[in-house]
Amino acid sequence: MFPWLERLVKTASGWWGLVLIWIYSFLIAFALPGVSEVVLLAELNLGLSAATTTALIVFVSAFGKSAGSVFAFHIGQEAKESGPVIRFLRNSRFDVIEWSEKKTVTIAQKWGYAGLAAALCVPGFPDTLSIYAFSVLEEDYVKFALATFVGSAGRLILWLAGGHAITSAFGL
Question: In angstroms, how far is CA 21 from the centroid of its own chain?
Fold first, then answer.
């Protein structure tokens, strides 16, 4: 949906590229449709080993996404207090609130914040809806931030592991 922004992230270089990765990850958590794995394509050229650069990308992206998630969490807390917002969403053509509450309540009741972290680990899946749905149901900012950090980092690590497995399988 925002190919220019994804292209900017992919071509990010130098230490300022990490800032761009943080901003992109922050925005992807609450405002942008899309997936966060794009950050793994950045060619930063930081003068560090490839493993260290990748670890920095994962950390900065997870931190940015966690910060964006906390912002979304705050919006969810405010929306929870706003009767007109909830009424509008409940009366919309697609009852997003009912669907997301049903799925999220199941995950939250069964696994709590660990369930949120696990849901965010699914590579390739836009997770903004999960973040907002969970934010309406829960109230602990610190646990929410930790769960989104772990889930975001886990997602990128799983993506890297899957990509490595695929390239190894095909001898690339």
Answer: 12
Calpha distance 112→69 (Å, rounded): 16
**Whole-structure pTM value:** 0.74
Between 130 and 59, the higher pLDDT residue: 59
What residue has token string 């964006």? Answer: 68
Instruction: Compute the distance between CA of residue 96 and CA of residue 117 in angstroms, rounded to an integer.
Output: 21
How far is Cα 133 from Cα 32, in angstroms, rounded to an integer?
Answer: 16
- Whether 135 has a pLDDT exceeding 80, the answer reads no
Q: What tens digit of pLDDT does each residue of 71-108 get?
A: 888 776 666 555 555 555 555 555 555 555 566 567 66
Q: How many residues comprise the chain?
A: 172
Mind giving me the DSSP string for the chain? Answer: --HHHHHHHHT--HHHHHHHHHHHHHHHHHT--S-GGGGGG-----SS-HHHHHHHHHHHHHHHHHHHHHHHHHHHHHHHH-HHHHHHHHHSSS-HHHHHHHHHHHHHHHHHHHHHHHHHT-TT---HHHHHHHHHH---HHHHHHHHHHHHHHHHHHHHHHHHHHHHHTT-
Q: Report the number of distinct structural domains present in the chain.
A: 1
Domain of 60, in residue numbers:
3-169
Give which of 44, 37, 50, 36 is closest to 19, Cα–Cα.
Answer: 44
